[in-house]
Specification:
The protein is α/β, with parallel strands linked by helices and 617 residues long. It has three domains: 24-67 and 92-254, Phosphoenolpyruvate Carboxykinase, domain 1, CATH 3.40.449; 257-325 and 411-574, Alpha-Beta Complex (Phosphoenolpyruvate Carboxykinase, domain 3); 327-405, Phosphoenolpyruvate Carboxykinase, domain 2 (Beta Complex). The chain is 28% helix and 21% strand. It has 17 helices and 32 strands. α12 (443-451) packs antiparallel against α13 (483-495). Bound molecules: guanosine-5'-triphosphate, sulfopyruvate and manganese (II) ion (MN). Residues 91, 231-232, 238-239, 281, 306, 328, 460 line the site of sulfopyruvate. It catalyses: oxaloacetate + GTP = phosphoenolpyruvate + GDP + CO2. GTP binds at residues 282-287, 398, 429, 524-527. Its EC number is 4.1.1.32.
């Protein structure tokens, strides 16, 4: 399995011992680890080497302790089910903080707290927080180790579940330590579930704490997370590092850390295009990343499904890598008819969290099959039948699986230099107003579009599902600095691109609904029809219709062969109502006004131009 094949032979003589690697950077790391051990008082310290043997030992121990259920290897080899505490099932945005020195640098969209104040809160919480547990030291790389766009970090954690997840989601091992020893900069990330054990105290299946803090220090490039064991709260390499901290590094170094999938689209003539797309959490990134086109002759290769780092190249193009090494994907809604690629990816070597368990020792979730099995154990461990009328899997239940296991992963998915982008898509979950696809007139208009994305809330974070909220660039919960400055940074990055080589920008919406509440667009594999139009636009092969909000397709230019979308639905998919769009513009103005005059003038000008076009429409 890919988990360990790329890892060098373990350099550690004993299980979990600190490897003998010399260098000034290593000394600093050891000192940091010793300080943390003195603070958190773990029973043992384990240096993670990323080997297969180590991973298997950790998994076995968790099964023995009742923290994981081993799935039936006949159906799901090398796979496990974790059930979280019912209070710890998603990212907790209200408990997520940006602790910049200056409040203005966090901006109005983040929870700000003064670094000294939060350190005063965190210190006592972390004091003795790992008692009775093992403290794992996990060196990891985002992007191939040593790559020009890559960055490394170390996570200290008392959660073996987090360790095995990080092992799938990132590159872990001694080669990272050698980079650190050689003086490479690394980001410090500290995690405790906040559940110390008294001597002899019996552990629970999912230790966590009611009190939670996910705290980012952008000035010192550190993350401290307390009280949660779930997803982005606990796998700190992902949202905390690769987005919040990396966005700050990118601001200072001239690149972008984005909540984007990354794909290569190959047209029937064999020409390849690279597309990145930002959609909010649980709004379709993994699905588009694994697209199986329903139109003949087209192919998609997966490069990444959640995070992309974008950097202007010497050639005036925008180059992208996926810094991760695995998928932490939403289970519900993933099935043969929606995302067959994901279903195939999950054949084995997968950690499932909060899905339902079948009597035969396999897993199930809503949407995996059309008909639910007659009997299941639900995500909380209770007997379940379809008649109960509640979901068997948690709506934010997830799978953790290696990217290399995806049957359509690009051969060069972990190429250190990445791929040059041809198109960037922004999207959200919008039942009304936003058309299936609309093209920006230029980079600045594209940045304006990105800054205006709003979406109905999903189960990926705590909050009221369905409620509409602004989610600029799908980065609202993930931008590590002032979002208005972030808009400005996007404009600046655009200036470094050659105007004829910059990716073209589009807004898409797979989720528009008719008056009867049904989706107007079939979505999933049929989204390839939208991608097809986008690529024909890039090639200058089809005209577009100017509208107040951007360039729309002529419906006759969409390839709809083999599907039946009534003309009335098509018209509704592209209907632009000036009255409700003027209301959107009002909301944008209101949103921009929360930034104390920091929103770039070029975006204010775009807003004024939009209002003018709506008025004369
Ligand atoms: P995160 O991992 O939270 O960042 O989510 P994501 O953006 O990767 O979303 P994902 O692809 O996992 O999709 C989330 C939900 O949206 C799933 O239940 C999908 O079935 C559903 N979905 C994805 N694409 C489409 C589509 O084209 N149409 C419709 N109607 N639903 C979709
Ligand atoms: C998201 O919420 O966008 C995710 C899941 O991808 S988590 O890693 O928990 O942030
Ligand atoms: Mn995500």
């Amino acid at each position: 399995i890919p988990f360990s094949s790329a890892q060098p032979a373990p350099t550690t003589p004993a299980f979990g011992a600190r490897p003998e690697i010399a260098g000034a950077g290593m000394t600093a790391l050891v000192e940091w680890v010793e300080e943390l051990a003195a603070l958190t008082e773990p029973a043992a310290v384990h240096w993670v080497d990323g080997s297969r043997a180590e991973n298997e030992a950790l998994l076995r121990a968790m099964v023995d302790e009742g923290k994981l259920i081993k799935l039936n290897p006949e159906w799901r080899p090398g796979s496990y089910l974790a059930r979280s505490h019912p209070s710890d099932v998603a990212r907790t945005e209200a408990r997520t903080f940006i602790a910049s020195e200056n409040e203005q640098d966090a901006g109005p969209t983040n929870n700000w707290i003064a670094p000294t104040e939060i350190r005063g809160i965190l210190n006592p919480l972390f004091q003795g927080s790992m008692r009775g547990r093992t403290m794992y030291v996990v060196p990891f790389s985002m992007g191939p180790v040593g790559g020009p766009l890559s960055h490394i970090g170390v996570q200290v954690t008392d959660s073996p579940y987090a360790v095995t997840s990080i092992g799938i989601m990132t590159r872990v091992g001694a080669d990272v330590l050698r980079e650190i020893a050689g003086g490479a900069h690394w980001v410090k990330t500290v995690h405790s579930v906040g559940a110390p054990l008294a001597p002899g105290q019996q552990d629970v299946a999912w230790p966590c704490n009611d009190e939670k803090y996910i705290v980012h220090f952008p000035d010192t490039l550190e993350v401290w997370s307390y009280g949660s064991g779930y997803g982005g709260n606990a796998i700190l390499a992902k949202k905390c590092f690769a987005l919040r901290i990396a966005s700050v590094i990118g601001r200072d170094e001239g690149w972008l850390a984005e909540h984007m999938l990354l794909i290569r689209v190959i047209d029937p003539r064999g020409k390849a295009y690279h597309v990145a797309a930002a959609f909010p959490s649980a709004c379709g990134k993994t699905n588009l990343a694994m697209l199986r086109p329903t139109i003949p002759g087209w192919r998609v290769e997966t490069l990444g499904d959640d995070i992309a780092w974008l950097r202007p190249g010497e050639d005036g193009r925008l180059w992208a890598i996926n810094p991760e090494a695995g998928f932490f994907g939403v289970a519900p809604g993933t099935g043969e008819s929606t995302n067959v690629t994901a279903v195939e990816t999950l054949w084995g070597n997968t950690i499932f969290t909060n899905v339902a368990l079948r009597p035969d020792g396999d897993v199930w979730w809503e949407g995996l099959t059309d008909e639910p099995p007659a009997h299941l154990t639900d995500w909380e461990g209770n007997p379940w039948t379809p008649a109960m009328g509640r979901p068997a899997a948690h709506p934010n239940s997830r799978f953790t699986v290696s990217a290399a296991q995806c049957p359509q992963i690009a051969d060069d998915w972990d190429a250190p230099q990445g791929v040059p982008l041809d198109a960037i898509l922004f999207g959200g979950r919008r039942a009304t107003n936003v058309p299936l696809v609309v093209e920006a007139t230029d980079w600045t208009h594209g940045v304006f579009m990105g800054s205006n994305i709003s979406s109905e809330r999903t189960a990926a974070a705590e909050g009221t599902v369905g409620e509409l909220r602004r989610d600029p660039f799908a980065m609202l919960p993930f931008c590590g600095y002032n979002m208005a400055d972030y808009f400005g940074h996007w404009l600046k990055v655009g200036q470094k691109l050659r105007f004829d080589r910059a990716p073209r920008v589009f807004q898409v919406n797979w989720f528009r609904k008719g008056a009867d509440g049904r989706f107007l667009w079939p979505g999933f594999g049929d989204n390839s029809r939208v991608v097809d139009w986008i690529i024909r636009r890039i090639e200058g092969q089809v005209p577009a219709v100017d509208s107040p909000i951007g360039r729309l397709p002529r419906t006759e230019d969409l390839n709809l062969e083999g599907i039946d979308v009534p003309q009335a639905d098509l018209d509704e998919l592209f209907a632009i109502d000036p009255v409700s769009w003027t209301r959107e513009a009002d909301l944008t103005e209101e949103f921009y006004s929360t930034f104390d005059g920091r929103v770039p003038a070029a975006l204010q000008a775009e807003l004024a131009a939009l209002r003018y076009r709506l008025k004369v429409a």
